[in-house]
C-alpha cells in the first residue's frame, strides 16, 4: 500500500521582495520627469505602504509604478490591498496593505472547490492559516494544484511542502 503524499496551500508574501520592489519604485519615482515637482513618494508606514502625491492622477501613477515593480519581482497583485485615493490636506494618499494567510472563509471556499471539481480520494485539512491537501496519488495532487491555479480566488496562493 503506497503512503500518502501531501502539500500545503498557503498565502504568504516574501517581505524582502516587497521591500526591494518598494525601493525600486521609490527610486524610479524620484528620477522620472513626470513626477518632478509633484512631491510624489512611496514608503513603508508601519505595516502598510503609503503612497502620496499632489494630485489624484499622480498618486494613481505612483501605485501603477509600485504594481509594475511587484510583478517584476514575482509578487501577485492579489496580495496587495490598496484603498482608493483620498485627499489629505494639499495631497492625495493611497494606503496599501499586504494580505497574508488563509482566512477561514477562503479555506472553506478552497475545500469546496477541491471536493466539487477535484479528483476523488483527495483529503483537505485546515490548520491555522494553511491547508494541507493529501492523497495516495501524486497525479491527483498535481491535478488539484492545476485546479487551484485556474480558480478565480482573491488571494495569492503558494503550494509548499510537496512530499
What does this protein structure show overall?
It holds the Pfam family YajQ. It comes from Kineococcus xinjiangensis. The chain is an alpha+beta fold and 163 residues long. It folds into 2 domains: 5-12 and 102-160, Alpha-Beta Plaits (2-Layer Sandwich), CATH 3.30.70; 15-98, Alpha-Beta Plaits (2-Layer Sandwich), CATH 3.30.70. Helices cover 37% and strands 28% of the residues. The chain has helices at residues 15-31, 56-72, 104-117, 138-150, and strands spanning 5-10, 41-45, 48-53, 80-82, 86-88, 91-98, 123-127, 130-135, 158-160. Strands 2, 3, 4, 5 and 6 form a 5-stranded antiparallel beta sheet that branches. A hairpin with a 2-residue loop joins strand 7 and strand 8 (130-135). Helix 1 crosses helix 2 (56-72). It is elongated and about 65 Å long.
**CATH superfamily membership of the largest domain:** YajQ-like, domain 2
For this structure, the quaternary state is single chain
Mean pLDDT: 92
Sheet with the most strands, sense and barrel status = 5 strands, antiparallel
Any idea what the shape is?
elongated
Unreliable residue stretches = none
The CATH class designation of the largest domain is Alpha Beta
Class by helix and strand content? alpha+beta
**Tally of structural domains:** 2
- Give the CA-CA distance, first to last residue: 17 Å
The amount of helix comes to: 25-40%
Q: What name does CATH use for the topology of the largest domain?
A: Alpha-Beta Plaits
> What is the CA-based Rg, rounded?
20 Å
Query: Helix and strand succession?
Result: EHEEHEEEHEEHE
**Strand elements, count:** 9
Please report which band the strand proportion falls in: under 5%, 5-15%, 15-25%, 25-35%, 35-45% or over 45%: 25-35%
Q: What's the architecture of the largest domain in CATH terms?
A: 2-Layer Sandwich
Amino acid at each position: 500500500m503506497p503512503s500518502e503524499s501531501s502539500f500545503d496551500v498557503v498565502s504568504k508574501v516574501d517581505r524582502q521582495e516587497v521591500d526591494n520592489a518598494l525601493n525600486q519604485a521609490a527610486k524610479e519615482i524620484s528620477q522620472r520627469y513626470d513626477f518632478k515637482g509633484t512631491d510624489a513618494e512611496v514608503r513603508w508606514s508601519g505595516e502598510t505602504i503609503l503612497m502620496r502625491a499632489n494630485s489624484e492622477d499622480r498618486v494613481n501613477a505612483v501605485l501603477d509604478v509600485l504594481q509594475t515593480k511587484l510583478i517584476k519581482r514575482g509578487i501577485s497583485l492579489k496580495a496587495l490591498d490598496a484603498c482608493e485615493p483620498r485627499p489629505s490636506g494639499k495631497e492625495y494618499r493611497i494606503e496599501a496593505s499586504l494580505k497574508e494567510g488563509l482566512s477561514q472563509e477562503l479555506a472553506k471556499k478552497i475545500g469546496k472547490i477541491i471536493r466539487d471539481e477535484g479528483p476523488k480520494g483527495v483529503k483537505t485539512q485546515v490548520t491555522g492559516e494553511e491547508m494541507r491537501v493529501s492523497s495516495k496519488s501524486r497525479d491527483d495532487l498535481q491535478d488539484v494544484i492545476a485546479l487551484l491555479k485556474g480558480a478565480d480566488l482573491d488571494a495569492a496562493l503558494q503550494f509548499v511542502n510537496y512530499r
